[in-house]
Structure formats: structure tokens, C-alpha cells
Amino acid sequence: MQQEIKIRIDYLKKEIIYHDNLYYNKNSPKISDGEYDNLVKELEFLERKNPFFLSRNSPTQKVPGYTSKLFKYVKHSSPMLSLSNTYSQEETVKWCEKVEKNLNDKSIKFIVEPKIDGVSACLTYVGGILTTGATRGDGKVGEDVTLNIKTIKNIPHRLQIDNPPSFFDLRGEVYIDKLDFKKLNEKILELGGQKFANPRNAASGSLRQKKLQVTSERNLRLFVHSFGKIYGRQFETQFDFLHYCKKCGFQLQDDLKICSSLKEVVDFIDVMISKRNLLPYEIDGLVVKINNLKLQKKMGWSSKSPRWAIAFKFPAKQATSILKKICVQVGRTGVITPTAIFEPVTLAGVKISRATLHNFKEIVHLNINEGDTILLERAGDVIPKIIKVVKKASIGVFATLQNCPACFSKIVKEKEVTYRCINPECPAQFREHLIHFVSRNAMNIKGFGKALIDQLIKRKKLQVLADIYNLTFNDFIKLDLFKEKKTYSILKAIGESKKQPLSKLLFAFGIRHIGEKTSEIVAKKFGNMKALLKASVEDFTKICEIGDVIAESLNFFFGKEAVHHLIDSLSNVGVNMIEDRKEQLNNKLNNKVFVLTGQLKNFTREEAKKIIRSFGGRIRSYVSTKTDYLITGSNLSLKLEQAEKLNIKIIDEMEFIRLIER
Ligand code: IVH
Predict the structure, then answer these.
(1) Residue 32 in contact with residue 318, Cβ under 8 Å?
(2) Residue 225 CB less than 6 A away from ligand 1
(3) Per-residue pLDDT tens for 19-29?
(4) Least confidently predicted of 36-40, 238-242, 469-473, 608-612
(5) Residue 223 and residue 356 share a domain
(6) Centroid of ligand 1 to alpha carbon of 83 (angstroms)
């Protein structure tokens, strides 16, 4: 038995050291944070039960971290340690109760702060001047990244205060905003590089750069959260310390809360769990600290972490699973998109079992195949993605497709990435085409959902697009769930949709490379369908917003005989073929549906509504599948929960302003 325990302990130590190296050194973790924490927990448990196997070199006795040979070393003024973790509100409350008991004080105030998912840094100011910036390294010695730190825009090079402390050793988290992270990955992909798996890795990789230009371009930021040695200034509480930092020129987080009771701690955790996705940066939990610094000192430190603080970790946003199957779906334009189906896992509280693989290059890039163990992540918001394969089941490569899975005709490969079914009669393409044609931003036929389309196709009532406009009362009344009222309302919606402007019809056609914006530009320039049908490639390229690819695509589309038939048949049933060329209102919000919740900081409700309307958006008072955006202020509500359930985009005021700015 003892022998078995020793073997397990050695195995866990080796695994933890291996994953520490991947996480801290290579910025490329292979397991989720939760799985890593479980390894550490198990090792701690075994060492506690079997203390004779505990050695000084165990990863449980050290701060995980790493110093590379790229940078000079810096010794920290006092160790930069880690935090102990809890994974539930109950555990966190138990920890608070333990603190109250140890200090024999039931009136202790706790400060709760977001736990930023970035990389730790230590900044030393001597006489108010930033002299050193360092990474955490192994906790005692870090890497000298002073010059990189100095490129971070929200870090003052000189403390903006009279009589600064003679020595001020601050600790904070360097991070990258979700939006900047997205832009960075897009840029990296454009240049053919390997994207970062998450904002933490991006922050760490960007800080530890030999080329300062790279760090400086990455838009890193810092939040101060703690301190090492300070000479020449004393603080009573963590809150006082943070506010002093603000006066010195640092940015403070908005979401700090001093809690006078354990209930307040729990309530604030609840608030932050709902707010997490709305923050512009990633947080992976909350840190609960004793606010009073004297009491902190009384509680002291263990070899690895302070006893005056605890991290409450959010449910994991990463998890591993086994890939069961790669399914392929045929889209409207015939493009075949692979989707991964995996063993169900719970990610950030939501059970998921599928994720898009985007295209076949992604399959090659991930080197992924059925049976492999994959690392999944729900980054920032809702859509799950596969980060990497962590364990291959075989050396096999996903078999290349030869035939369309819907109509079995031969498929063509384009630009190494795209597989396309070019059969114009492919039923899967037709179904997708119908879905797009009736959708809100196209012909906007309310109530014409996928289930209805499937029923009508099955009854052979929809064989070409124009059939939509020949459907009769009798066709609907026979369908599942259709009674008189619903039938009249769908017939009315079909009739209404005939009045859509030419731009909407153009977009509804789903012409390659022609999105909503281009459709509008083209419709405005030509004014009616007749003019479009007569136009040449040159006529299209005369429009300054239109390049060769779009012009060729339009010309190709309007040159097809089948398209002429389609247009004739739509025109015969009364579909509008004209664009109103009067200058429209500013239409940046393009009929998008907004719901407002909570109190807004920058506008009153009425002001916000006016702004949305003036930019062409619409307001609704409740969240439904038709909502495009939920704008949230403070005071979280049921609407937020509903929006999360329905995968509606949730934005705050700043993001709303950015929508209009763009
Ligand atoms: S207090 C012992 N407060 O989390 C150091 N840390 O997992 C006391 N972190 O190394 C740190 N946000 O880099 C503290 N509000 C916050 C934090 C925070 C992020 C990081 C920090 C620490 C790591 C521990």
C-alpha cells in the first residue's frame, strides 16, 4: 500500500512539474485549470496523510513559475506567492468563518476583488520613479522585464503624487482586454502565425518579449492588487492601499466590494458570476481578502500563499473531452463545414457536446480525428471552441471528403481549405438558402422558421424560392400546429415581405461575397432590378466601394439564366424590385433589436432609446430569440439570465458606443 502511495505521489509530482512548465514557460497548457488544480489537490491530500513522503522539492511546497534565460534576474523584495483556491461559495464562507474564529472577531471586513486572468508582475518605484519591472518567476526571483513594463500605457513611470514613498514595491496583474485579444489573434492568423489560446497566454507571451515594439503594440494593461515592501508610507487597509495607488496614477477595478458580513460576500460573488461575461477583460474568479492590514499580518503566510486571502475560482471554462465524430454540414453556398461532436462536458456551467471546426484547414491545423482527446474552451462568451488535441487516439488523419453528404455529387476543393458542393440542385443547399431568404435581415418573413420550411419541403410545397409567394391558406392549415390565426398571420407576413426594398432582396439571394452592406450600396447605385440585370463588370467596378471580386461575382450571378427565371417569377408574384434612393437615416444599427436592462451610467433610458432609434435600431422591452443585443447597466436582472440562456449578445455601455462608432 505504502509503495503504491509513493508511486502515485511521484507520478503526481512529475505531472504537475510538466504542466507547470507548459503553462508558465511555454504559454501552452495541455490541461484545463480545473484538471491541474485537481492534481495539486490530490498531491496535497496524499502528502498530508503521509507526511513522511513530503519533500522540499515537491511542487506543493513551491510557487509554480519559471525564469527563462532570455532576461536578467531580479530578486523580489519579499516573495511573490500564490493564492489558495476554493471552488464553491460554501467553501469560501467556511474559509471566512475560520478566519473569524482564528482572530476571534466576528466583525471582520473582507474586501472582494476580481481575480484577473493575466500574468503577475512586480513594479518597484524608488523615490517615485519606476526602476524595475519583473515577472513572478519562481516567487523569489523573477525576470527583469522593466523595459517591457514601461511600454504598458496605464503604468505611470513616475508616481503622480507629492512625497511618494521612498520604496514602493507593487504587485499587479498584466492583462489584455477581450477585444484586443480578439484583434491580436485575428492579426496573427492573417500573418499565418499560431494564435494564442486565451488572453492569459497572450498577456504572458506579450510581456516576455525581447522585441519591445511587440510588447508595446499588444495593448497590455495592469491592475494593481497587492504589494511587497513599502518604505515611507503606511496603510490601514487594502482599500486605502488601492486608493492611494489610484492617486499615484494607476487604474483601479470598478468591481471592488468591502463586505461587512458573510452574506455580503456570498451576494457579491453571485453578482460577479452574472457580470463576468460583461467585463471587458477575463476574470477567472474572485479574491477574498481581509481588508485590515494589521489583521492580515496576524494571519500571516504559509510557504506558498497568504492565510489572509483566498481565491474563489469560477467554474472551469476549459475542459477536455473525447471527440466522437466529425460531422459535415452543407451550407447555402455549398460550402461544407465540419462540426465536432464530443462526449458532453460542462463548461462554465453549460453542458455542450458540439463545436464548429470552421473549415478543413482547421482539421489539418489541429491534426484532429475521431477518438482524440481534445481541449475545449468557452472563451469570453458563448461559442465553444476546440483549442487543441491533447492526446491522439491514433496517427490517422481525418479522411478527405469526396462526395456531398446531402446529394452525393462530387465535391470540389478550393484554396486548400474549402470543400464545396457545386450541384445547383443540392437539397441541403436549397434548405439553407430558404432559411437565409426568409430571415430577418433578408426578406423578413416573420414566423417562417426551420421547422416550417422542413414541413413544406417534405410536402413538396417548396421546390423553388418563388414557391414561398404561391403558398395558400390550404397549404398551411394542414401543417402541424397551424390553426386559422397562425395561418393568417404567416400569409400576412409573406405578403408584407414582398414590399422589402431591392437591397434586402439582393441580400436574400445570398450571392457570394455580397453581404448586407454591399447589397445596400449596389441597390442604391442601380435603383432597380432591370438596371442590375443589364449591368456589366465595368459598371459594377465603377462603384468605388466595389472591387474586382465582388463585381465578378455580381456579374456571374446576374448572367445565369436560372437567375433571370427566378427574378421573373418573383416579379410576377409582386415582389418589389426597386430601391428607395432617398438618403436614409444613419443606419448603423440596421434594424437590430435592442433590450435595455439595469441602470445606465452615461445615458438615461430615454436618451439610450432615442440614440438606438436614430441609428436605425429597434427597442423591445423583453428578451426573446429576436433580440440582437441586451445592453446592461448596473443592477442585474432576469433579462440577463434570459439573454444568456438564449445566447443573445450581451453588451455594456462602452460596447454599445463602439457599435455606433464603427
Ligand atoms: S492578491 C499572494 N488579488 O492571482 C499574492 N492576486 O493565483 C496576493 N491575481 O499571483 C495576490 N487578481 O497574480 C491578488 N485581485 C487579485 C488578483 C490576484 C489576480 C493573481 C496574482 C496571484 C495569482 C494567484
Answers:
(1) yes
(2) yes
(3) 888 887 776 77
(4) 608-612
(5) no
(6) 7
What pLDDT, on the 0 to 100 scale, is given for residue 380?
A: 45
Percent of the chain topping pLDDT 70 = 95
Q: Are 235 and 107 in contact (CB under 8 A)?
A: no
Answer yes or no: is 197 within a domain. Answer: yes
pLDDT digit string, tens, across residues 279-289: 999 998 999 99
Note whether 78 and 217 are same-domain residues.
Answer: yes
Establish if 291 belongs to a structural domain: yes
The CATH code of the domain that includes 494 is 1.10.150.20
Question: Do 12 and 149 share a domain, yes or no?
Answer: no
Return the C-alpha cell found at 430.
436549397
Q: What is the pLDDT of residues 138-185, one digit of tens each?
A: 898 899 999 999 999 999 999 999 989 888 999 999 999 999 998 998
Q: What is the mean pLDDT of residues 73-77?
A: 86
Nearest-CA residue for atom 3 of ligand 1 = 225
Q: Whose CA is nearest to atom 21 of ligand 1?
A: 120
Which of 572, 604, 638 is the last residue before a domain boundary?
572
Q: Is 226 in the pocket of ligand 1 (CB under 6 A)?
A: yes
Q: What is the mean pLDDT of the chain?
A: 88
CB 423 less than 6 A from any atom of ligand 1: no
**Ligand 1 touching residue 120 (CB < 6 A):** yes
pLDDT over threshold 90, residue 532? yes
Would you name the residues annotated as active-site residues?
115
Cell 441609428 sits at which residue? Answer: 615
CA-to-CA dists, residue 321 to 34, 284, 373, 375, 623, angstroms: 13, 21, 6, 7, 33
Same domain, 170 and 272: yes
CB of 115 closer than 6 angstroms to any ligand 1 atom: yes
User: Residue 231 carries which DSSP code?
Assistant: E
For residue 398, give the amino acid letter.
Answer: F
Nearest CA among 406, 465, 463, 472 for reference residue 438: 465
Show Cβ contacts of residue 597 under 8 Å, excluding neighbours closer than 6 positions.
630, 631, 632, 633, 635, 636, 637, 639, 640
Q: Report pLDDT digits (tens) over 191-246.
A: 777 778 788 889 999 999 888 888 999 999 999 999 999 988 999 999 999 999 99
Task: Show Cβ contacts of residue 275 under 8 Å, excluding neighbours closer than 6 positions.
Answer: 255, 636
Among protein residues, the one with the nearest Cα to ligand 1's atom 18 is: 115
Q: Are residues 329 and 365 in the same domain?
A: yes
Q: What is the arithmetic mean of pLDDT over 573-580?
A: 92
Residue-number span of the structural domain to which 48 is assigned: 2-61
pLDDT band for position 518 (cuts 50, 70, 90)? confident
Question: Does residue 394 sit in the same domain as residue 278?
Answer: no
**How many Å apart are CA 498 and CA 577, to the nearest integer?**
9
Q: Which three cell numbers stand for residue 209?
A: 518579449
Q: Is the CB of 122 under 6 A from ligand 1?
A: no
- Per-residue pLDDT, 381: 44
Please name the amino acid found at residue 523: A
Residues 87 and 138 in one domain: yes
Question: What CATH code is carried by the domain that includes residue 366?
Answer: 2.40.50.140
* 465 within domain boundaries: yes
In a domain, 502, yes or no: yes
Count of the separate structural domains present in the chain: 5
414 and 453 assigned to the same domain: no
* Ligand 1 atom index nearest CA of 115: 12
pLDDT of residue 379: 57
CATH number at residue 652: 3.40.50.10190
Q: List the residue whose alpha carbon is closest to atom 23 of ligand 1.
A: 82
